[in-house]
Design the sequence.
């Protein structure tokens, strides 16, 4: 237990420099991109442009702007948005993050619960018809990208059948959530199903499972009590990348379903050169990915006694 | 305790009965393109934001459903004989959405805010004809010296440096809207946020959930509130044009911001009665960088390039009919200005191409010495398609080898402004108000929008003369436009059309060249509820 605490603490400590490097890189890379937040098809009078740039400290040397930003950041302030006048980046993230988190969280749950179930069923009926059907479907699920699946779902369930809305978000009603979560979860769900099946097949051939079977334990008990836990280890280590994929995947899904999440800001802000907003979102995404990997690591220790021992 | 619940329950019950017995509330849902950047009238810059601001605020003048200028917050106005002083009479019953009276000082505050450099308004340049505006926006004078004054609480005077017939059109724009001064004083530049915004328009702001919707409800203090039929209107950001169309088909929108050109055939089949296409005051053109070889000092070459483009093919095949071929610079439909074309626009295709080849040869190019050229545009499918087709036309007609360069938008805009690497570049201009000067001004050598570097003293002189002699304005601007035909600093390709799907239950929608549609002019067919 003590070693677990130490590990947790050391992991958290290394996270801080990681995020710092991330912010620094993102800051200077954004500034290296040509064009600025106030360039548009309609050009501004030079005096007006100068006045706006002074307002946002853009007329100062870059290194000073950077220090300025770090100072604000240390107070938990992510600065003003360049695109949304009068809004702080912190406010925008506070509004968008819960929406994206709900979307991503539900999609992750769906992917794990349904994916693992499918995997177990397929492993149990290895090389039967149902195994082949499920695995073919999951191969399709991995191959077809979300920007193809989502419009198809909309066409079927919103335009043709009229059961669910084609987009929009009214305070997270379940009707609004259903299609986007499904579209977001599908590729991950398919991947989890394949992972579970493969590792389950391996585990089911392990000597201790054969021993359990020889002892005459019912299949159900063997599966759930003895085989499932080790079979889930590869799935667990995939959850870190899966969470990252859900975050980046939500960028597309939020756009297609008009959902007011964080993902929409990410692309728009980068195109608009909304420097502070991009940095804010990068920081949040970075922190989330670090966090997920951390949680997975810790869970690994809980599930796999071998990790605990070392 | 129990008694209190009883009262609350009875109250709710009464409300519910009232709502079901009364007329069903009319509620309109509009697709509004990209997310708005702000609801601050002096700082807004996008078409999407202006669409909403027209409901929230009312300028001195407004645009009627047919596109004509009609009285707004001012019921009448007088113009001095020399055309330099305008006096507006505000409505005595004009009210802000909190019940305060709308006064001339509120308009003064709004326009001062626009020209003040501290505000950073994109539209300060639009107010330059007003006395003192130019010096104020350069920071040389204080905003208080602007030639806009409250003569009395209900009388506003605007003094101009030169007669400006387009002033009335300018006064329909958000940059000239009034400001509720107590709010500005209390909240500073944050006065336009939800919960604070107080407007003088037909609607007031209910909520703005970023990336989700902006909802407005009827402003009961509006001076003409009795004629406003629709109770609530919700604007949805619809960045993705295909998603918007799907939401319209699913019955979630009453009016769309655009229609996807790729699906126009299907739309014409399934929604022909709901499809509204109308001329719009915008031009899609190729600017030519006249400060660099090979296009500098070679008007013959520029003419050949312009003549070799078959605009009809571009409009029919590339745009699927969603545009009008452009030969002149000022689009048809601009009020009081007959549209012009260069003479060659009337030629048959064979004659036109022969003429183009003749100019090309005279410019010093031919099969032995072909021109190599570059078209630069920002990365977008539609720009790519137009550029590909034009490059093919140049190749076929003249033998020009064209390189297509696409860049990310901000990179492209920067290159365009610097004029160091560009040769031919994509550009667009949308008019701010219905007046020819909105187009002719931007090719003046000192205009910030003139990325071609064209500097023709004869053109500049005519633009300035048109300002000084209002009586001869139209012929003078027409003469200026003909100089564009001779010198070809720009190649107009097509004029825009506004494109909307409007559900048949929306009554009162009329297409107009500015594509302005105030919700107060619309109503919904009562018997058909939302589908």
Sequence:
């Amino acid at each position: 237990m003590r070693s677990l605490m130490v590990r947790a603490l050391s992991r958290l400590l290394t996270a801080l420099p990681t995020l710092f490097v991330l912010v620094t890189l993102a800051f200077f890379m954004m500034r290296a991109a040509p064009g600025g937040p106030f360039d548009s098809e309609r050009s501004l009078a030079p005096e007006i442009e100068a006045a706006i740039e002074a307002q946002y400290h853009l007329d100062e040397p870059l290194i000073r702007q950077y220090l300025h930003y770090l100072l604000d950041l240390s107070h938990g302030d992510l600065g003003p948005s360049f695109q949304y006048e009068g809004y702080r980046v912190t406010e925008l993230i506070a509004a968008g993050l819960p929406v994206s988190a709900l979307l991503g969280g539900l999609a992750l749950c769906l992917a794990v619960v349904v994916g693992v179930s499918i995997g177990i069923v397929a492993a149990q009926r290895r090389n039967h018809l149902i195994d082949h059907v499920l695995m073919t479907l999951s191969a399709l699920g991995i191959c077809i990208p979300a920007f193809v699946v989502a419009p198809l779902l909309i066409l079927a369930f919103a335009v043709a059948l009229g059961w669910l809305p084609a987009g929009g978000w009214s305070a997270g009603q379940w009707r609004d959530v259903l299609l986007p979560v499904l579209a977001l979860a599908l590729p991950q769900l398919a991947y989890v199903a394949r992972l579970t099946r493969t590792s389950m097949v391996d585990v089911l051939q392990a000597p201790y499972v054969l021993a359990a079977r020889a002892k005459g334990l019912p299949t159900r008990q063997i599966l759930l009590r003895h085989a499932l836990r080790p079979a889930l280890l590869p799935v667990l280590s995939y959850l870190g990348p899966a969470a990252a994929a859900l975050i980046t995947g939500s960028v597309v899904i939020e756009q297609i379903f008009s959902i007011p999440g964080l993902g929409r800001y990410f692309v728009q802000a980068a195109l608009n050169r909304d420097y502070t907003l991009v940095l804010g979102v990068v920081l949040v995404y970075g922190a989330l990915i670090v966090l997920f990997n951390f949680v997975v690591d810790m869970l690994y220790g809980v599930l796999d006694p071998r990790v605990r021992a070392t | 305790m129990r008694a209190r619940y009883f009262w609350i329950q009875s109250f709710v019950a009464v409300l519910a009965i009232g709502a079901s017995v009364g007329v069903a509330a009319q509620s309109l849902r509009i697709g509004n393109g990209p997310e708005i950047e702000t609801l601050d009238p002096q700082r807004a810059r996008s078409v999407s934001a202006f669409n909403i601001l027209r409901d929230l605020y009312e300028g001195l003048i407004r645009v009627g459903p047919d596109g004509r200028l009609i009285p707004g917050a001012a019921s009448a106005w007088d113009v001095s004989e020399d055309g330099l002083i305008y006096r507006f009479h505000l409505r005595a019953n004009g009210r802000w959405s909190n019940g305060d009276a709308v006064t001339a000082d509120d308009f003064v505050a709004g326009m001062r805010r626009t020209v003040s450099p501290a505000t950073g308004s994109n539209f300060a340049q639009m107010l330059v004809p007003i006395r003192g505006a130019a010096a104020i926006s350069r920071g040389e004078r204080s905003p208080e010296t602007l030639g806009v004054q409250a003569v009395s609480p209900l009388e506003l005077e605007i003094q101009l440096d030169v007669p400006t017939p387009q002033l009335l059109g300018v006064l329909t724009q958000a940059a000239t809207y009034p400001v509720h001064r107590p709010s500005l004083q209390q909240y500073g530049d944050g006065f336009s946020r939800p919960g604070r915004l107080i407007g003088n328009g037909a609607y007031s702001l209910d909520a703005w959930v970023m990336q989700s919707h902006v909802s407005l409800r009827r402003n009961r203090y509006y001076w003409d509130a009795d004629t406003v039929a629709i109770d609530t209107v919700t604007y949805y950001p619809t960045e993705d044009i295909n998603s918007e169309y799907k939401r319209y088909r699913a019955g979630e929108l009453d009016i769309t911001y655009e229609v996807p050109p790729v699906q126009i055939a299907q739309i014409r089949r399934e929604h022909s009665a709901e499809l509204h296409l109308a001329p719009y005051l915008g031009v899609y053109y190729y600017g030519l960088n006249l400060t660099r070889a090979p296009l500098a000092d070679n008007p013959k070459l520029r003419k050949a390039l312009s003549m070799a483009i078959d605009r009809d093919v571009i409009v029919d095949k590339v745009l699927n009919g969603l545009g009008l071929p452009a030969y002149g610079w000022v689009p048809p439909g601009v009020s009081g200005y007959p549209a012009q074309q260069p003479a060659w626009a009337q030629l048959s295709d064979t004659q036109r191409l022969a003429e183009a080849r003749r100019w090309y040869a005279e410019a010093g190019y031919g099969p032995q010495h072909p021109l190599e050229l570059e078209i630069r545009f920002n990365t977008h499918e539609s720009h790519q398609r137009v550029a590909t087709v034009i490059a093919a036309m140049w190749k076929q007609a003249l033998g020009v080898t064209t390189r297509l360069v696409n860049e990310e938008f901000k990179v492209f805009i920067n290159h365009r402004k610097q004029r160091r690497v560009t040769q031919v570049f994509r550009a667009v201009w949308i008019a701010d108000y219905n007046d020819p000067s909105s187009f002719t001004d931007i090719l003046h050598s000192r205009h910030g929008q003139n990325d071609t570097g064209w500097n023709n003293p004869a053109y500049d002189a005519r633009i300035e003369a048109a300002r000084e002699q209002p009586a001869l304005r139209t012929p003078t601007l027409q003469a200026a436009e003909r100089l564009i035909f001779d010198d070809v600093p720009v190649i107009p390709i097509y004029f825009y059309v506004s494109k909307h799907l409007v559900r048949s239950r929306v009554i009162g929608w009329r297409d107009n060249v500015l594509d302005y549609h105030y919700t107060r002019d619309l109503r919904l067919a009562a018997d058909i509820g939302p589908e």
